[in-house]
Amino acid sequence: MSLRVLLAVGVAVLYLSPVMLSRAGDRTEGTPGPSYVAAVYEHKVILNPEPHVPLSRSAALEHMMRNLKVYEEQAARAAEQGAQIIVFPEDGIHGFNFSRLSISGYLETIPDPLTEDWNPCTQPDRHNQTEVLQSLSCMARRHQLYLVANMPDLQPCPLTSHPHLDPSQTPCPPDGRWQFNTDVVFRSDGSLAARYHKQNLFFEKEFDTPPRLEVVTFDTPFAGRFGVFTCFDILFHDPTVRLLEKVHKVAQCFNMDANEFIQSLNVCLHLSQGIRQMIFPTAWMNLLPLLTAVQIQRAVSLGANVTLLAANLRHDSKAMTGSGIFTPSTSIYHHAFHHPGEPEEGELLVLRIPVLDSDWLATQKQAKRQGETGGQGEAKGQIGEEGEAKGQIGEEGEAKGQGETGGEGEGEPLSASLPILSPNPSPSPSHFISSMMCDPFSFVLLHGSEGQLTVCDGPLCCHLQYRRSPQGGNTELYALGAFAGNHTADGHFALQVCALVRCSGSEVSSCGKGVEEAESRLDFRLEGKFGTRYVYPSLLGSGMVVDGPDRIEKTTDGRVTMEHSGMSVGLVTACLYGRVYDQD
User: Fold this and answer.
1) Which of the following is catalytic: 42, 138, 198, 527?
2) What is the rounded distance in angstroms from the CA atom of residue 374 to the CA atom of residue 360?
3) What is the rounded CA–CA span in Å between residue 431 and residue 281?
4) Is 198 marked active-site?
5) Residue 262 is inside which H or E element, if any?
6) How confident is the model over 20-47, as pLDDT tens digits?
């Protein structure tokens, strides 16, 4: 068997073998193994009150500096708590709802760090009109942390920074320039490390879709490699799945002889796992019952088995809130609730989390074997000065963010007390159609305190076992829903979804409507056989609590199972959200 076949088999095993996850705690303390301290900031953005009116450069800069002043304060707070990387949200510096013309004063031309080494803080005169870049660069340098922010970018057309781009295949916009929604990454010395142009725009008429897909990563000395994507990107194959499945440094495995390959098999397979640490600036509007910010963030972290550092805006009138630090085994997050008379405020989250970059971990392990020192992943004393921490995680980074909950339920667990679902259960009678997230879901109602249900929509069948514990004699209505088809509202993409939801009222027509509160606690096993391997599990409790499932299992035939028992709050939604990317 050739080395290429061996490696291909290894990759297939990684993607197709059964996967199980255990319930996570709400934060990591004393994380075993190499770790680092991450921070995200949910920013109460200061908006331009008239975004459709063009501003001069000086007026636009004055506006942006008001938001950057807040960034400076939060970067300082994060550094005091030991943060080595901080993520700020999409649109946090400039705002939103611009026209193509009115955003002109906010634009800066961001050089491509793949072709130019530049430190805006120490080399401010190299490029004109880069005051925002200089401010962010000096912020990262001053507080000795990696910094990720989002800003508008202006590039000449044709793109001189993409030498392999054929201009004839990508005609210029009529005004002769590209305008991009852009993430920038700065190293702790202030140098520009990465630039990513958002691929999937969400009604952003001021920006262009990049003429060439960008799959952007950057390396750090304290945790290895990270990938970058933005907001609406999270629902699409490009660039998100390309990052998750990105193979890097595998060529070295093909240069080994057979014995060397077998000895290095674990390392080679790890190198084929793709990027497992993701940066996610967003300006996400919460959409119940399936796509609230913290819900989709946790779902992608669990479903893709990655760390996700997610920073959202706080803007109550547009239902924007929900940020978090999510790993497959732990999380800390924040969802704000607006109360009349109370000010809208930002929120800083800080958490120590494990390093997931297998390449970096293997390198550190090899260095340790060779007797080298440094770079062991602790927040105090990473490789060189760039990775050094400035303190410990303070109370503000722990207490203010919500964490996953889920105490042990009384009595025996669901899996022990109910029989295993039959391989091919028959659909339950009395199904009905109701709209959820603008899609026609097939639903069946839950009746009684326990039972088994099946509902199908086309090729997808969803199965549920449940045991319900109503609180205070409530009569809340629950339904099991299935949808397999194309979502066409606010975007076009193919879905296969199994969802257990609390209906908003007592009528079947209320099933699928958004609701934030619930009293009924359910132990359940939710299962579906999907035609895609991209299935993202989520569990949302009353008051926007993101709970951690007891168990998630994926089998090679496409069956995905999620179990949970002992909820601490009422159940709002339990969902297996499948994306069929090849049918988009």
Assistant:
1) 198
2) 13
3) 40
4) yes
5) helix 258-263
6) 333 333 444 457 799 999 999 999 999 9
